[in-house]
Amino acid sequence: MYAEESFKKKRERMLSILAWFRLSRFYNQSIRKSNQHLKLWNITVAQFDVLAQVGSTERLSQQELADKLLVTKGNMTQLLGKLEQLGWIQREREWKTKYITLTDEGRALLDEILPVQEQFQADQFGKLTMEEKKQLLNLLKKIQS
Amino acid sequence: MYAEESFKKKRERMLSILAWFRLSRFYNQSIRKSNQHLKLWNITVAQFDVLAQVGSTERLSQQELADKLLVTKGNMTQLLGKLEQLGWIQREREWKTKYITLTDEGRALLDEILPVQEQFQADQFGKLTMEEKKQLLNLLKKIQS
DNA sequence: CACTTTCAGTTTAATACTAAACTGATAAAA
DNA sequence: TTTTATCAGTTTAGTATTAAACTGAAAGTG
C-alpha cells in the first residue's frame, strides 16, 4: 500500500519535472526567436511588451505597468528610461505619480510591429488545433488558480 | 465565407496571445519563487540547474552542458567559472575539451537540495491531476515538435 | 611538413532583471 | 503645525543572458 503510493508520487514528480523542462525550453526559445526578428526594428521583447501595454490602456503609472507586466518597479524605471530616451514614450508627472503615454513615434512603431508580433505568437502555437489551444490555456489557468 | 475564416483566425490569435501571457507569467513567477527558497543555500536557480545536470550525467563538456540547458557556451563559461570558484565543480581539460564533474562539496550540496527542488516542482503543478499533467506535457511536446 | 579549417572555450558589450536600500513628496496623526 | 507613515519612483550591486568577436589547439589537406 505504502509502496504503491510512493511509486505514484514518484511518477507525479517526474511528470512535473518533465513538464517544467519543456515549458522553460519553450519559453526561452520563444524569447530568443522573438528578439531575433524584432532586431529589424531595433527593439527588444521587453521593450516591445512595454509599448504594447502602454498602447492598449489609458494612463498607467509606472507601478501599475510593472504589475501588469509582472516585473519590479526598479526594472520599469530602467526600461522606461531607455524607451523615453528613444523617444517612444513620455512620462507625465502628477503628484507623486508618473503617467506613461506613447509619443507619436511610439504609436507608429507599435502599429507597425503589433500585427507581426501577433502573427509570431500565433505561429508559435501553430501546431495545436483550436481545441488544444483552449486546453492548454485552461491548464495554465488552473495551475495558477 | 471570408469573413467567417477571418473571424476564426482572430480567435485563434487571441487564444495564442492569452496562452503566451499565462505561460510567461507562470514561468517568471516560478523562477522568482525558486530563487527565493534557494537563497537558504546561497545558490541560484541557474547555478542549481548546472549542478543538477552535471550530477546526473557522466562527463559532459561545456558545450554539451550548454546544449542540454539550452543556453550559450558563453553563458556556460561564466556560470562554471562561478561554480568552480565556489568549489562545487571542477573542470578537467582533455585535448580541446573541458569536462565538468562535481566536487565532493558539490555532490553533497546537490544531494541536499535536489529533493527539495523536486518537491517544489511537484507543488507548482500540484493543482493538476495526473491526467492533466500528462495532457500538459503532451501539448508542450506537440508545440515544439 | 606547412596551410587552412574547424571547433571548444573565452571575452566583451549590451540588455534584462531582482532585491534592497534610498529619496522625496504626500497624507495621516498628534 | 509638527511629526510620522506611506508610497512612487530611483539607485545600486549582483546575477543572468545573448550575440558576436576572439583565441588557440587539433584535424584535415596538399
From TrEMBL, chains A, B:
Domain annotation HTH marR-type: ranges: 1-145
Name of the protein: MarR family transcriptional regulator
Species in which this protein is naturally found: Domibacillus antri
Superkingdom as given in the UniProt entry: Bacteria
Pfam name, any one: MarR_2
SMART domains: HTH_MARR (SM00347)
Gene3D superfamilies reported in the protein's UniProt record: Winged helix-like DNA-binding domain superfamily/Winged helix DNA-binding domain
InterPro entries found in the cross-reference section: ArsR-like_HTH, HTH_MarR-typ, WH-like_DNA-bd_sf, WH_DNA-bd_sf
Signal peptide: none
Transmembrane segments: none
Gene Ontology terms for molecular function: DNA binding; DNA-binding transcription factor activity
UniProt KW keywords: DNA-binding, Transcription, Transcription regulation
